[in-house]
Design brief:
Chain lengths: ~130, ~130
């Protein structure tokens, strides 16, 4: 399909003025892919539990390392972001929230809820402060 | 009333070749994942300081095995649908695109099978 090579491509990312909505859109994809990779760990953890105590301890040992902790925190953030922004996407699919002002309000709300839920989760996980 | 020509209706399904099926499946699996993920997340968080036995006892509960299996299948289905779109958008070399899609599909099926098998095996007490 050589003739299609020079067609203009949309969106023109180099031309657009930066907006928070574009970052949120691409982050939905990035976090989605990150979570897909994270599902490998999830199944690995589960399968290790099925194999026996030694395998399970091994997974926990890796997860409690610095790299493991960074990955888990990253996945926690990604999960809450993808979950909250996913609900935002479902609202759009239902036809709600297309006014520009609403775009921004729901966008900032996604960030706020993501950060609050992540902080709460980390608090429970590290401080053991289960309510 | 449809504005499509009969030929258009027969060919029917637009540039995606499968109509709105993919889009709809992605939305439905997303909707199902909201409660399933919250349930799984809260459960795991409650066990974040628990030992091996606690996790196994949890997995031994019948309704946990059911929800866990449903969660894994829905999650990996949703993950496949999502990664598929990303690959289709960014990989333009035909053989590489096909190979990546098959690889991701195989990986998701393998992870799902391993996860569900484990959930059932522990639930049935092996």
């Amino acid at each position: 399909m050589a003739t299609t090579d020079n067609r203009p491509l949309s969106p023109h990312l180099t031309l657009y003025r930066w907006q928070i909505t574009m970052t949120m859109s691409i982050l939905h994809r990035v976090t989605g892919v990150a979570l897909a990779v994270g599902s490998i760990l999830l199944v690995w953890w589960l399968v290790a539990a099925g194999i026996g105590p030694e395998a399970f301890e091994q997974v926990h040992w890796i997860l409690s390392s610095v790299v493991g902790q960074i990955l888990l925190i990253g996945w926690t953030l990604s999960l809450y972001y993808h979950l909250c922004n996913g609900v935002r996407h479902l609202c759009w699919d239902a036809g709600w929230g297309f006014e520009i002002k609403t775009f921004y309000i729901t966008g900032y709300a996604v960030w706020a809820v993501t950060l609050i839920l992540t902080a709460a989760t980390l608090w429970v996980a590290y401080a053991g402060g289960a309510p | 009333m449809s504005f499509r020509t009969p030929l258009g209706t027969v060919r029917g399904l637009g540039s995606a070749k499968s109509g709105t099926g993919h889009w709809w499946s992605q939305r439905l699996s997303a909707l199902a994942l909201i409660p399933l993920t919250l349930w799984f997340g809260v459960s795991v968080l409650q066990m974040s300081h628990a030992d091996y036995t606690t996790v196994i006892v949890w997995m031994h509960t019948p309704w946990v095995a059911v929800l866990l299996s449903l969660f894994l299948v829905t999650l990996l289905y949703h993950a496949y649908l999502g990664v598929q779109v990303v690959i289709e958008d960014y990989v333009h070399t035909e053989w590489l695109k096909l190979a990546s899609l098959l690889l991701i599909k195989a990986a998701c099926i393998l992870l799902g099978a391993a996860g569900v098998f484990t959930a059932l095996r522990v639930a049935f007490g092996a």
